[in-house]
Amino acid sequence: MGDGRYIKHMAFAVKDAKAAVKTYQDFLGVATNVKIDDFPKSRNRVAQFWVGDVEYQLCQSLDDDGRFAKWIKERGYEGLHHICYAVPNIDEALADAQAKGATLKECSACKVKGSHVHPEGWVAFLEQEAGGIEIEMMQVYTAEELEQYKKVKGI
Ligand SMILES: [Zn+2]
Questions:
Q1: 8-82: what CATH class?
Q2: What span, in angstroms and rounded, lies between the C-alpha atoms of 73 and 37?
């Protein structure tokens, strides 16, 4: 967008992350050694890979009432669940959006509304969708901020 914003990741709700990634490998040249991790806190299994500069996350709930399972159940199909936009300053980006009527949505993993720490940066979600797609914003940590996050978390 020329103002320091870019797509950090696109997250897709899928029923089976391992099965879903195969299409990308067979048809789109995605490497066969894609990282598929289980996240105990959010109860998700995520296949993560890049197409060009864009990070894809194929997200499978590990529980029937999980965030992505519920999304699929409500709509009846798998699909693009949210886009995470990297912003230069999340407090400013949220203030701008809120001044125009945006409201904050609770992070389903952390049960927190508004900007809060995640492994890669400060994130926040909006109640409003853009073209039917949930909006996540992230101020990605600098190298120093990432070190600080790891120190606080003991990792
Ligand atoms: Zn969170």
A1: alpha beta
A2: 23
What's the CA-to-centroid distance between 27 and ligand 1, angstroms? 33
Distance 33 CA to ligand 1 centre (A): 27
pLDDT tens for the chain, 155 residues: list them.
568 899 999 999 999 999 999 999 999 999 988 999 999 888 999 999 999 889 999 999 999 999 999 999 999 999 999 999 999 999 999 999 999 999 999 998 899 999 999 999 999 999 999 999 999 999 999 999 999 999 999 98
Q: Which of left, alpha, beta for 106 (phi over 0: left; psi -120 to 50: alpha)?
A: beta
Q: Where are the domains of the chain?
A: 8-82, 87-155
Facing residues of 139 across strands? 122
CA of 22 to the centre of ligand 1 (A): 28
**138 CA → ligand 1 middle, Å:** 11
Cα 107 to ligand 1 centre (Å): 5
